[in-house]
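Quick one:
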Amino acid sequence: MYGALGPRSIVDGRANILVNQGFLYEKLKDSKQAEKAYVAALDQYSNILQHRLAFMSADEKSRYWNDIRIGYAFFNNFTVANYQESPELLSHMYRYRLATKSMVLNSTLKVRRRIMQSGDLELITAFRTWKANKEYLNKLYSLPTGDLLSGSINLDSLENATERMEKSLSERSEDFAAQFENELPGWQDIQAKLLPNEAAVEVIRAPHYGQNKDKFDIAYIALIVRPGLKQPRVVVMENGRNMDEEFIDEYFYHIFNKLEDPHSYEVFWEPIQEALGSAERVYLSTDGMYNLMNVNTLMNPNTGTHVIDALDIHLVSNTADVLELKKPRNTTHLGPPEAHLFGYPNYYLDLTKNLETYQTENKELLAKTATTREFTREFLLLADLPGTKVEVEAIDNILQKHDWAVHTLLEDE
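Output:
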């Protein structure tokens, strides 16, 4: 069960109790009450992640996540077992996934930078005051209620004052409003931005009891969003422990030895591919072993083609990134998009005078490194890579055709 977690705000304490209630109802096979308790608990957690996370230190973030992660684990396991009877669970799972990924990836740095660069001294002062208040409130949240009372600290009054500052800042800064006032996105927000040939996929590595209720295991869950769906489509791969161990080892064995891999596609991608339907472009957010592999390299043994041949995959840290990627660019002020390309480096720039001698004396060594790209202990030589020049020039040509401003650096540049 979910035990006492030490000093924490009342909101956290109630959420922890609700997680325990959900777990209890689940064991009593009362799925409706379990769902109600889990959702109430994780809604509170997600609200805290959105509004307090940016003002926690790295250590506080780590401790907070360690405190609450078991609640999300219980809920994910419950969802896998009950989504067919209650499809709305998939919507909640997707929303909580976006919230917890945001915990790691989001920050106030972008907002702070834009406000500081605005030149509006009144806005800058208001932002600094608000930030100091939020940091002070975050410290108070970690104190026991008795300490707050003995110190005559009126938490409600401080919260109300800070909320008034937030409203004022939101009225004066669109960046601030977008970061701190908007609700966390749901899968429907992402779906609304997808074209008919697109899909968004969230991969989640989750604890799972599977078919054997007495054995704790790992499952990989893919939540798939396509235009026209009433709920996210779900793919559950229950052999997660094998995927984490023997199957990923087999994948890397074939990659490192440049061998055809007849099995990894079936394990890691085929179930997802079947659920993608006619999608041609996929926004993919990964987890677990999917973070270590390149799904584009997986070969369909039935066709002999790779994933990259069939799909245009865009890796994203979080499928909520689709909302940002789909925003129209204000090209009036920004100008054309820019790209900086680097390739075909001159590894011997500091050895120009001796280069001919090195190449002549170590012809055999260079022939070897030309295929393996290895360093050598004896001479620390690197072979030229003329293929990279061809690749960079091809990319340069493609981008310029699409009106990009391209800066290409080759060889001595």
